[in-house]
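task queued by scheduler; priority normal; single chain, no ligands, no partner chains; default sampling; output format set to C-alpha cells
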Amino acid sequence: MPARPALVNILFYLAIAAGVYAFLYWHAQKSVYFPSRYPQGYWDMQARIGARDAELRSQDGVRLHAWWIPKDGAPFATLHLHGNGGNITHRAALAPEIGAAGSSLLLLDYRGYGKSEGKPGEHGLYADADAGYDWLIARGFSPERIIVHGESLGTAVAVDLAARRPCAGLILEAPFTSAKEVAGRVLPVLGPLLIWSYDSFSKIGRVRAPILVMHGDRDTVIAHALGKKLYDAAPEPKVFWTIPGAGHNDVLPVAGPEYRDRLRRFYAAIAGDARL
C-alpha cells in the first residue's frame, strides 16, 4: 500500500515542475520581444527623412505598417528587418545612409510593433518579411534588385527569407547562430531549454546571394564570436566586417562614414561594378 502515496507524491512534484517550466517558458518567450507601439517612438522623423506610409498585409491577414523611402535612380530596394526592440522610428538614421549608398528603403514594422497590428512571434515575423518582399515585387522590383538587410533579431528573419526566396544580397548586422545559443550564453543550461527558436545556422547554407556580415567587437548582447560562427557557415561570396569599438546598438554612430562606404561597396559588388 505505501506505493500509492509515493506515486501520488511523484505525480505532485512532476506537476509542480511542469507548472514551473511552463511559467519560465512563457516568460522566456515574452522576453524575446520588446515592441514600442504607436504613439511611442519618434514619428516626427518621417517628414525629416522623406518617408511615405506603406500599408502591407501578411498572408495570414495581419495589417502591417512600413515607411517607404524611395531613392531616384537607385538600382536596388532594401527591405530592412529591425531588431527586437522599438519600432521603425528608432531606425530612421539608417535611411540617409542607405539612400546615399545607392538603395531605396522599405522600413518594415513587424506585427505588434509601431502601427502594425497583431502580436509578434517567430513564424509571424517570417510572414511579415514575406509581406515586405512581396510589396517590393508588386512595385516592380525584381528579386535581383532586392537587398535583405537584417539587424539583431532581424538577421534571423532576414536569413530565413533569403534562404527561401531569391534576392540580390543579404546584409546581417550583429547576427547570431540561433536564439538557443544566445540564451545559453546568457543563462547556461536552463536558457537553451527555454528558447530554441530562430535557427539561422541551419538555414544560412541555403542562401544564394552575396552576404555582408557586420559586427561590433564590443557587443555584449550578441557576442562577436556568434556572428563570426554564422559567417563561417555561410556560402561564398561573403565578407565580414568587424567594427572596432562598437557594441550592439551603436554600430552606425561608431562606424561613422565607413558604414555608408561599406554599403556602397557592397551594392557595387552585387551590381557587378566591383569586387566583394
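post-processing summary
- The two ends are 75 Å apart (CA to CA).
- The longest strand covers residues 63-69.
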